[in-house]
Amino acid sequence: MRIRRAVISDISAMADLSREAFRDDELFRWLCPGMVQHPEHCRGYFLRRHRMRFNQPGVIGFVAETQEGDVDWHELERLLLSVGNYYVKWADLDRAVSWTNKAEFRRLIYDNFSKVAEFWHLMILGVSPTHQRRGVGGMLVDQGLALAQEEGVPAVLEATSVGRGLYKKKGFREYSWMRVKEGIDGPTFIWEPKGMEGKWGTEPGGEVKAAEAGHDTQDPVLP
Q1: Edge-to-edge strand list for the sheet holding 209-212
Q2: Alpha-carbon dihedral 95, 100, 102, 108, rounded to 10 degrees
Q3: Which of 2, 37, 157, 187 is the one with CA 20 to 30 A from 27?
Q4: Which is higher by pLDDT, 38 or 182?
Q5: Contact 177, 186 (CB under 8 A)
Q6: What does DSSP assign to residue 219?
Q7: Which regions of 67-208 does DSSP assign to beta strands (E)?
């Protein structure tokens, strides 16, 4: 098995995989409280999210598979996806997602990493339940770390309990403690390029700042 960049034809399968991979994840159960009752809406949420990210400059997706393809960016498609996503939210067509929780979580993430000028944000790291514990997740993380090392910037992510061991093994350090709500909290992580350790205030033994949902922060640029 090897890692390659995702192509447009992967998006449908990525949505299916995401729905299955995060079915029991406590954070996504909070973001999508209706994911069990409305699995088709949950898949639609991931489908829209992957399409938006795929067509956003500066975002790169990776999949573990065998076929190859090319990535292409389409200005018009980005606009149409933005309009479509707004309509789904405005018309309340997605019964799986809590838009209030999602907005609250985005503000919290923005607040956590607002002092880091540039970084690669590793998101939606999901592995099919039938292929977990085979090193696939680590291979995907390595792709993001290679990009961060090449550009001399850190990589960041928020971690639920399932992935923390992997991230620490890959050299991530705790950056802050994020409390989303009662019963859903945990560390955010930062990985620093070799030779630049400590530049972003993560020296061993350093203080880990705390952050809680509900802070007044600037709205993120992304929808």
Answers
A1: 120-121, 155-158, 184-191, 173-181, 209-212
A2: -170
A3: 2
A4: 38
A5: yes
A6: P
A7: 120-121, 155-158, 173-181, 184-191
Tell me the pLDDT tens digit for each residue of 72-88.
Answer: 444 444 544 554 555 45
CA distance 7 to 196: 33
For the record, the structure tokens of 70 come out as 């090319």
- Site of tokens 């007044």: 216
Q: Is the pTM of this model over 0.70?
A: no
> At 220, phi and psi to the nearest 5?
-60, 155
Helix (H) or strand (E) holding 211: strand 209-212
- Structural contact between residues 110 and 218, judged by C-beta atoms closer than 8 angstroms: yes
DSSP 68: -
Number of residues written out for the chain: 223
Of all helices (H) and strands (E), which one includes residue 65? strand 62-65
CB 144 within 8 A of CB 120: yes
The residue behind tokens 């018009």 is 76
Which residues partner with 53 through β-bridges?
none
What pLDDT digit, counting tens, does each position of 157-186 carry? Answer: 988 778 889 999 999 998 888 887 777 788
